[in-house]
User: Which sequence fits this backbone?
């Protein structure tokens, strides 16, 4: 099983683009604090995140440097040739879901809006008209 759950802050503004076939994608990186670290050692890990299609569009539109996000996805290895002609490998987290944990001004906390499919579904349910049970034919 290849499943990753990360919570961290964006280290830079996201970069969005589209493939030659018109599929949108967005790349950003996050800094994730380690729970325990050796004294004098860096207690932060940095991860490259890539999102696709609708999630990519939302991330490109909403996210900025410093925003806190929760990312669910999988680890993917890719290789590329650097400007110096040397073949390199990189590790990306391909996000299946990104939850925005802090508000656009960087203020996090329990009051922060979270844009998730479940939350969008809840707001759609609030728009439904209630039906009196006595009016139902069964």
Assistant:
């Amino acid at each position: 099983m290849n499943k990753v759950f990360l919570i961290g802050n964006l280290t830079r503004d996201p970069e969005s683009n589209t493939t030659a076939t018109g599929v949108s994608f967005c790349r950003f990186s996050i800094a994730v604090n380690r729970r325990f670290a050796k004294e004098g050692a860096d207690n932060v890990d940095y991860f490259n995140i890539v999102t696709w299609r609708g999630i990519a569009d939302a991330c490109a539109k909403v996210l900025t440097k410093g925003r806190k996000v929760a990312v669910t996805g999988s680890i993917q290895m890719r290789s590329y040739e650097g400007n110096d002609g040397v073949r390199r490998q990189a590790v990306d987290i391909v996000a299946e879901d990104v939850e925005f944990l802090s508000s656009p001004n960087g203020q996090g906390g329990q009051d922060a809006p979270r844009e998730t499919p479940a939350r969008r579904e809840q707001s759609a349910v609030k728009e439904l008209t209630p039906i009196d049970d006595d009016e139902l034919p069964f």
Q: What stands out?
A: The two ends are 46 Å apart (CA to CA). The helical segments are 53-62, 117-126.
